[in-house]
Specification:
- It is globular, with a radius of gyration of 15 Å.
- The N and C termini lie close together (about 10 Å).
- The strands form 3 sheets. It has a 5-stranded mixed beta sheet.
- By secondary structure, it is of the alpha/beta class.
Length: about 180
């Protein structure tokens, strides 16, 4: 896992319209980087909440980026064209970026979809954990309570608990031979 206090790794990636988005676009703002994709049942389970997070927190000054790093040759549902459809269908107001080289996922030490990384206004990692306790099939409602509590704490200058539950989901679909050393 990326250690708390780590500076946000830089990125410069295309969104679903072809516009390049970079970490520097969020200068001076807290930033939430989410590794997501289209086909994962864990992401599908929370997609409405991801859209709500975008609407609720972008208006409060949080920079948010969703990033898909999956191998689209073997998982065509995660292609940029399908990402564009998913962003519209799910109501994502944040940029949904494509990490074709998978270098950004490796820099963040992302392991699964979904995987969440919250940075403060200095772009230092303050939270890397789960959205909430809901999982496909466990009948717990999707609330976003863990991530929302961390976002609220960042926005109000309060401490975020160091005891954070890791995110759970599907492994990032690495290209053959591209698997990171932490996989």
């Amino acid at each position: 896992m990326l250690a708390l206090g780590t500076a946000a790794p830089d990125f410069k990636l295309p969104d679903t319209s072809g516009k390049t988005v970079s970490l520097s676009d969020f200068r001076g703002k807290p930033v939430l980087v989410m590794f997501i994709c289209n086909h994962c049942p864990y992401v599908k389970h929370i997609r409405n909440e991801l859209g709500a997070l975008g609407r609720d927190y972008q208006s409060r000054g949080v920079g948010i980026a969703g990033i898909s790093s999956n191998d689209v040759a073997n998982y065509p549902d995660d292609s940029p064209a399908r990402m564009k459809e998913e962003a519209k269908s799910a109501g994502y107001t944040f940029p949904y970026l494509y990490d074709e080289s998978q270098a950004v996922a490796k820099a963040y030490r992302a392991a699964c979809t979904p995987d969440f990384f919250l940075f403060d206004t200095e772009h230092r990692l303050v939270y890397r954990g789960q959205l909430d306790d809901s999982r496909p099939g466990n009948a717990m409602p999707v609330s976003g309570k863990d991530l929302r509590a961390a976002l609220d704490a960042v926005l109000t200058g309060k401490d975020i608990p160091k005891d954070q539950k890791p995110s759970m989901g599907c492994n990032i679909k690495w290209k053959t031979g591209q698997e990171p050393d932490y996989f």
